[in-house]
Amino acid sequence: MNLSLTRRLALGLLAGAALVASPALAQDFPTRVIKMVVPYPAGGPTDVIARIVAEEMGKDLGQNVIVENLAGASGAVGTRAVARAEPDGYTIVFGNNQTHGNNMFLLKDPGYDAVKDFAPLAGAGAFEHVFVVSNDLPVKTIPELIALAKKEPGKLNYGSTGVGSGSHLATELFMTRTGIKMTHVPFRGAAPLVTELMAGRIDVSNSTLPSVLAQFQAGQMRAIGIASPKRNPQAPDVPTLREQGVTDADAESWAAFFAPAKTPQPVLDKLSKTIIAILNKPDVKERITKLGFTLNVRDPEAFKPYLAKEIQTWADVIKAANIKTVEGN
User: Fold this and answer.
1) Residue 218 — pLDDT band, cuts 50, 70, 90?
2) What's the CA gap between 305 and 53, in Å, rounded?
3) Which of 78, 145, 187, 248 is geometrically suited to a Cys-Cys bond with 70, CB 3.0 to 4.6 A?
């Protein structure tokens, strides 16, 4: 047998082995603990939803799924760690429009490419945004907030969960639509923002509904308008921006699960199928919906065009608002 024939035979055997191994890989996976990275501090709505899903994944896959909070740099620290992780399915991330969209335009060097470095596993849905104000602020409606902000431009401060976060860009969009100016105060996640808002050190925030729902229901802050086409069933008494005369300022912050891009397809398929099934479980849907999160489960093929459209939408907002890039360390 000549060398060329031997080489061709060896290559053929390797290819055949790969075809046999792929189904076996999915069948055997996982054989150890899976780590789900949340690129924000513990206690926020993203963290809570991740933990609900991780708990169910552990039951369905027969291996523990632990949540690790790696906050910093507007979510880039944790997201970067997953992009650089071994692409074997044992490290995934619960990302959002900030980590897998806005950071590409707002951070000088996020350390990853949100599209090329990741494979979507499942789109989960979106956080609707609601305007909340400190109880010390003398406003009870969106028109009253606008009037106060116009009276002394820049005096009011608004909090967000970081530069490039949904709460940041949604507020910039609102200011563009209403012609007002407020001063931005970014935080490292929802928990510290909510603490400062309740203490009266922050005037207003266009926060995700889950991050402030319990607090305004308890009277610790005041909700004055929701940035969605219709009222949310978890907060039926809060009128929409549209009802109060502000149009084209609706905003939502989507969330989705991702794995490193080079993860074997059989493993991606198993993770995707598992997560989608969990998000569709009636008890899980009830638990997550009660947080104020709007579920809209998408498989990877349905999520990809949605992701592309969302990236372009918020890139346009960033450009229109003339938001400058910052360091991504």
Assistant:
1) very high
2) 24
3) 78
Q: What is the dihedral of CA 156, 179, 293, 222, to 10 degrees?
A: 40
The reported pTM is: 0.81
The domains located in the chain, with CATH, are 34-126+252-321 (3.40.190.150), 128-244 (3.40.190.10)
- Asked if 250 contacts 142 with a C-beta cutoff of 8 angstroms, the reply is no
| pLDDT at res. 22 | 52
Residue 71 corresponds to which amino acid?
A
Measured CA to CA, the distance from residue 86 to residue 263 in angstroms comes to 8
The tens digit of pLDDT for each residue in 20-43 reads 445 556 678 999 999 999 999 898
DSSP assignment of 142-194 = HHHHHHHHHHSTTTSEEEESSTTSHHHHHHHHHHHHHT---EEEE-SSHHHHH
Q: Which of 79, 102, 74 is nearest to 92 (CA)?
A: 79
Nearest to 294 by CA among 123, 128, 48, 165: 128
